[in-house]
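Lecture notes, unit on binding sites. The following record was shown on slide 14. It pairs a sequence with coenzyme A.
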Amino acid sequence: MPYQGTFYFYGKTIPADLMKIFAETERLLLRELLPTDDAGMYELDADPDVHVYLGQHPVQSLEESRKIIEFVREQYNQNGIGRWAVVEKETQTFVGWSGLKFILHTVNQHTNYYDLGYRFIKRYWGKGYATETAKATLAYGFNQLQLKEIYAMTHIANQASQQVLTKVGMQFIQAFVYEGEPMHWYKKINPALL
Ligand SMILES: CC(C)(COP(=O)(O)OP(=O)(O)OC[C@H]1O[C@@H](n2cnc3c(N)ncnc32)[C@H](O)[C@@H]1OP(=O)(O)O)[C@@H](O)C(=O)NCCC(=O)NCCS
């Protein structure tokens, strides 16, 4: 049963069917990231604990978070995909982001590929949200977008992320170095092609 609630958007409450909702799980909605997610994005990215394995550059201002949202929304237009906002259905709260990003630069000798990623506000860790959204993202990528393969990478010390990737069936391929940091590289082939 699709989500039939409402969202608060630019000062108005609007029906969910006017939003771009890309996927729905038992507890969560994955929808387009909106300018009104700015406070949530700031809470997420200002937290140094969230950035421990992400190069340790938490954002310093709400304005920075607004620019990140704009950047992701540009990717929706330019690449047809970008990370999605994750919203708890029960509370209608923004809890973080998850989804695919089309990577145009070269990482571990791969260019123009789809990367699975996720990031949640700390108080929502440990609830299975990364796993739940990663599964929905892979299903969307393989079934809707008909992608042949999806990749992911994580810092070698980021055990929570590695556990998520393993649980959703991503295969560990190799260790490599990215921007001076030791990383793990993962891949999943579209099961329909196997
Ligand atoms: C990584 C992150 C997305 C995980 O989100 P989450 O919703 O808590 O993940 P889940 O609850 O779905 O699963 C986490 C798994 O890792 C395990 N885990 C958590 N911390 C762990 C640790 N320090 N060592 C080993 N396993 C750990 C959990 O037990 C769980 O596995 P289980 O279900 O088998 O018990 C979240 O911690 C986060 O946002 N971190 C900051 C940003 C980040 O690192 N993003 C990923 C970049 S690659």
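Take-home: Residues 141 and 147 are 6 Å apart (CA to CA).
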